[in-house]
From TrEMBL:
Organism phylogeny: Bacteria, Bacillati, Actinomycetota, Actinomycetes, Kitasatosporales
Molecular function GO terms recorded: ATP binding; ATP hydrolysis activity
Entries under SUPFAM superfamilies matching the protein: P-loop containing nucleoside triphosphate hydrolases
rRNA-binding in keyword set: no
Official protein name in the record: Peptide ABC transporter ATP-binding protein
Membrane-spanning segments: none
Family matches, as SMART domains: AAA (SM00382)
Keyword field: ATP-binding, Nucleotide-binding, Transport
Matches recorded under PROSITE patterns: ABC_TRANSPORTER_1 (PS00211), ABC_TRANSPORTER_2 (PS50893)
Length: 334
């Protein structure tokens, strides 16, 4: 349900109990990069997927685009399960486009801007006027007048302009969904703000949905409708961005928020590193680093044993606020 009580639109893209595992080294246990994820993205909605490096965010994003095949579970787009034949994937990738972190690495230095934007049109055999489609995409990405950029090469552009060219290449195919993996991580502060404003404008003007993968909760606050916080292959907290970021319930989300410059109180410094995804611990996967468990708060709430032995349930993919934490559940229990 939406805030005014009307039914929510059906998801454009859904992950259903998604698992992605890679073979372990020398025949060892598999690496469980994505370990049971439900996630929905609705038409025109921006969802931020947040977590530390190595938590599985990029693998999940690639699986949602069909670039990595799930070990178990299902990706559903526009009500239909994703098929992995070459023709089906080619059709899907017209509708769901990837925007990568590093525009310099995404663009061939020998190609002009025109060639970079036209590449997808040529791969998918766009039937219309190619020059007009390239110009329209560049204009939508904020590079105006577009003809002024046709013959330029990447080294002649600023970092923000290069990222706009990458976005224009995605927009040329008129997609319904963008998956942006750390889209502003390599940019300076002013360019970051411009690209975020562009993504918001594209949502408003074109109805584009977006999954924005980031380690930066501040970015999520500025751009997202909903946020999903990921730890060691699983979403541990999700919900409307205002709910999650103003009143975080999971100790991991609280720690991530505490290091933002505007956060009240002292930063929460997590000890140690995330566990090896080939040996995910029993019980709560955050237990080895959890300040609530280490500080005795979980014991006082009567859930310390559950934290060590009982894995929290996998969260649903819907829009309501949810948390996978025994201690957070005990705090709101009657």
């Amino acid at each position: 349900m939406t805030d005014d009580g009307t039914p929510s639109p059906p998801p454009l893209l859904s992950a259903r109990d998604l698992h992605v595992a890679f073979p372990g080294r020398r025949g060892g246990p598999p690496l469980r990069a994505v370990d049971g994820v439900h996630l929905d993205i609705r038409p025109g909605e921006i969802v931020a997927l947040v977590g530390e490096s190595g938590c599985g965010k990029t693998t999940l994003a690639r699986a949602l685009l069909g670039l990595v095949r799930p070990t178990r579970g299902q990706v559903v787009f526009a009500g239909r399960p994703l098929e992995y034949g070459s023709r089906a994937l080619k059709t899907y990738r017209r509708r769901a486009q990837l925007v990568l972190q590093d525009p310099s690495g995404s663009l061939n230095p020998r190609h002009t801007v025109y060639e970079a934007v036209a590449e997808g049109l040529r791969i998918h055999r766009h039937g219309g006027d190619e020059r007009e489609a390239v110009a329209r995409a560049l204009s939508r990405a904020g590079l105006r007048p577009p003809e002024r950029f046709f013959l330029r090469h990447p080294h002649e552009l600023s970092g923000g302009q290069r990222q706009r060219v990458v976005i224009a290449g995605a927009l040329a195919l008129d997609p319904e969904l963008l998956v942006a993996d750390e889209p502003v991580a390599s940019l300076d502060a002013s360019a970051r703000g411009e690209i975020l404003a562009l993504l918001l404008r594209l949502r408003t003007e074109l109805g584009l949905a977006a999954l924005v993968v980031t380690h930066d909760l501040g970015l999520a606050w500025n751009i997202a409708d909903r946020v999903a916080v990921m730890y060691l292959g699983r979403v541990v907290e999700t919900g409307p961005v205002e709910d999650v970021l103003t009143a975080p319930r999971h100790p991991y989300t609280q720690a991530l928020l505490s290091v933002l410059p505007e956060a009240p109180g002292a930063p929460v410094v997590l000890t140690g590193e995330p566990p090896d995804p080939t040996h995910i611990p029993s019980g709560c996967r955050f237990q080895a680093r959890c300040p609530v468990l280490a500080g005795g708060e979980a014991a006082r709430a009567g859930v310390a044993d559950r934290c060590r032995t009982e894995e929290p349930a996998v969260l649903e993919g819907g829009g309501r606020a949810q948390v996978a934490c025994h201690w957070a559940g005990a705090r709101v229990a009657p």
